[in-house]
Amino acid sequence: MDNNPRYVSDVAFTPAVKAIQARKGSRLGYSRMEQRGSWETQITPELRDFIAAQTSIYMATANAQGQPYIQHRGGPAGFLRVLDEHRLAFVDYTGNKQYISAGNLSENPKAQLFLMDYEHRQRVKIWGDAQIIEGDEALIAKLTSVGYGTKSEQVIVFTVRAWDANCPQHIPVRLDAEKVRSALDQRDRRIQTLEALLVQLGQDVPGA
User: Fold this and answer.
1) Which domain covers residue 128, as residue numbers?
2) Taking the CB of the first residue and of the last residue of the chain, which one, N or C, has fewer CB atoms within 10 A?
3) Is there a single domain that holds both residue 56 and residue 150?
4) Are residues 33 and 46 both part of a single domain?
């Protein structure tokens, strides 16, 4: 990849990609996008809010031979933190100790984060470089979610180079189980309140 890309989106739109876009008829549209400013390079307030709501992310890395790997990371909303306009970070909790992402990043710092919000049918792709920080107990404490009972091992700091938000096409709607449970509990309490009111008014309660 060109170390001095002309456009921010060149992080993904390599000459090979652009050649296929031209052959399949989408290059003109993306060329116009490039002329209008291409993709974002800083963490905007809108992206900050989106990140703060996520409970699940995917991180892609590749080793020195180019073999890719995707790792899932999750936690309470806000486990992925914005440090400043260009950096994100999250605590890497103890897992199965394969350390594939860690090994990949030791050879190749380039990485990507993929954030999917199924409830609102939104997705964000973030390109950048990732660094593993071990032994910084203050940083681990700062980023660890309160009450999350899993051992913290290290921190991954992600420097944002570019990001883009995709359209909602083909994203299935999936709701968080806890939100559904809360909504059903509220419904049930409302039904109980209305049934009690009917009894007070001397009305029959259907199904009682």
Assistant:
1) 40-166
2) C
3) yes
4) no
C-beta separation of 136 from 91 below 8 A: no
Question: Mind listing the pLDDT tens digit for each residue in 48-93?
Answer: 999 999 999 999 999 999 999 999 998 889 999 999 999 999 998 8
- Shared domain check, 139 and 71: yes
Q: Do 125 and 153 share a domain, yes or no? A: yes
Higher per-residue pLDDT: 16 or 194? 16
More confident call, 166 vs 109: 109
Domain count, the chain: 3
Q: 59-94 in b/e burial notation, b at 16+ Cβ within 10 A? A: bbbbeeeeeeeebebebeebbbbbeeeeebbbbbbe
